[in-house]
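Subject: Re: docking follow-up (coenzyme A)

Dear J.,

Thanks for your patience while I sorted out the input files. As discussed at Tuesday's group meeting, I've set up the holo structure prediction with coenzyme A included as the bound ligand rather than trying to dock it afterwards. The sequence and the ligand SMILES I used are pasted below, so you can double-check that they match what you have on your end before we go further.
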Amino acid sequence: MKELMIGDKKVIIRPITADDAAAMIDYMNVIGGESDFLTFGPGELNITLEVERNIIKGFLEKNNALFIVAVADGKIIGALSFSGGGRKRLAHTGEFGVSVLKEYWGKGIGQELIKYLIDWAKETKIIRKINLRTRSDNERAVRLYKKLGFEEEGLIRRDFMIDGKFYDSLMMGMLID
Ligand SMILES: CC(C)(COP(=O)(O)OP(=O)(O)OC[C@H]1O[C@@H](n2cnc3c(N)ncnc32)[C@H](O)[C@@H]1OP(=O)(O)O)[C@@H](O)C(=O)NCCC(=O)NCCS
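The structure tokens for the complex came back this morning:
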């Protein structure tokens, strides 16, 4: 667990629990409508409470996965999930996704979530590589990832199609040694 002050607000970063399932669904429904840089849009996620609880439990059961939330005033305001491979040859590597509620953008919460992931990855001794992919025009995210030490590894063309328009994704990665 990690505690930070954002202005006069206390923000806690902690692993998610199955009891956060309902709050997580509400959170995802909000962020889907706040950014076109995510893999889902507004109203697209029809996840039931049971499915979400099982998704969370799936993360908690794996020793090479992490699912954390940033919480302020008892509400989820940010989240990060990372999942390592299920096979032995791929168990050391995985991809993460991160998001923050729009009203909290630019306050360092995304950065703190990713630093938590990097610290955790180093401690596991299992994870040796962190990957991410982001729309290549997501300047805010790319700048943040570079600042934290992620390097560009390649471009995936036409990775997104939103309202008939294609967008490329940038693959970025960090070696954990
Ligand atoms: C990307 C995202 C997670 C970043 O979280 P955040 O809490 O806003 O980021 P932080 O406040 O920790 O970091 C901000 C950093 O982004 C960059 N940044 C901030 N404002 C920026 C802007 N207007 N333009 C470009 N870069 C900017 C800077 O590197 C800044 O670092 P600084 O502290 O040195 O100024 C968040 O904006 C978000 O959820 N966006 C929508 C979903 C998304 O794009 N997710 C990532 C998909 S791969």
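A couple of observations from a first look. DSSP finds four helices and eight strands in the chain. The longest helix spans residues 109-124.

Let me know if you'd like me to rerun anything.

Best regards,
T.
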